Amino acid sequence: MLGVGSSLNQPYYRDTFVPSDISDLIAWYDFTDATTIYTTQLGSTTVNENDNVGSVLNKAPAKNQDQAYSRLGVRLVSKNLGGGALNGGVFKGPKDGIYFGSNQWLWNFAGIQGYESIRAGDGGEYSQTIFDTENCTIFVALKPEDSTISSDHGILGLKGRNNGNSAAAAMQLKRLNSNESISYKCIWEGASIADGNLDGSVNIGTKKQVIEIAGNDAIQDDLIIRKHTASGTSIINAGDLDSDSGGGKLKLDKTTPLGEAAGGSGDGDGFIVGAFLDEVGMQEGGSFKGHIMEVLIYNAVLTQSQKASVEVYLRAKHLI
Prior knowledge:
The chain is mostly beta strands and 320 residues long. The chain has one domain: Jelly Rolls (Sandwich), CATH 2.60.120. The protein contains two helices and 24 strands. It has helices at 116-120, 304-317, and strands at residues 25-30, 37-38, 55-57, 75-78, 80-82, 85-86, 90-91, 98-100, 106-107, 129-132, 137-144, 153-162, 168-175, 182-188, 196-199, 209-215, 223-229, 232-239, 249-252, 270-273, 276-277, 283-284, 286-287, 290-298. The strands form four sheets. Strands 2, 3, 4, 9, 10, 12, 13, 14, 15, 19, 20 and 23 form a twelve-stranded mixed sheet that branches. Strands 1, 7, 8, 11, 16, 17, 18 and 24 form an eight-stranded antiparallel sheet that branches. Strands 5-6 form a two-stranded antiparallel ribbon. It is globular and about 50 Å long.
């Protein structure tokens, strides 16, 4: 049963299914849920409509520090521009999520464990995640602002290391300047390791939509990128992502902070939404312009039934 929240500080959508009903959920950043969005990095005051965003809590279930698949951060935080200014986007309400303009993003700049580990010391959450870039399922509900773009626009990214040789590595999801479509790319540093990417050929336009990146449960080590809109579902691209000796897996367990300076830097692990990271932790390329409503990342290949449940949930909730 669908329902509408009676308050701005309540999620817009209610249903019996929630993303955490499926195991292996490591990121659930709901940019329409004002109860998880704060005006400061430390999360003391929840947002009202048109407030600048300081941080967003991860709604994925918490895990023990010694578990193999910890969450992708306790929270995402804005970069502090000084003088109280933040660049984490603007909360546009329970229907439209967070609007990201030029050079606005949210990230775990203090390592993949999130900002809380600095504030809480040993009480922070340290990730031991091995993220499989091919055998995963990612959903991003968004609405791009521009139908054409002049540079690549990042949507989200991870920075870690190759699971096979601990060399620097990164995963990037972005819109391409060449055709305004979607690229899902992994960069692997080290001898005889090929970078892998799937570049789509479908212009994603400016409508509300769900981008799905999913491991193919019928073909091992094969990915499919789909676009779900009100007019139906289309396949953007499909194929093998990489030939990496580490099995296409990103190791995320190094908590040395990424720098908060413009562009980032640092030896730690990081997760970013609204832009993308390169293999040395730099915020790279253009940032996303438009609304992002929700990000779901499962560290597993979901079944067709599970994917259908998530798709129905996102379509109904975000009126797609």
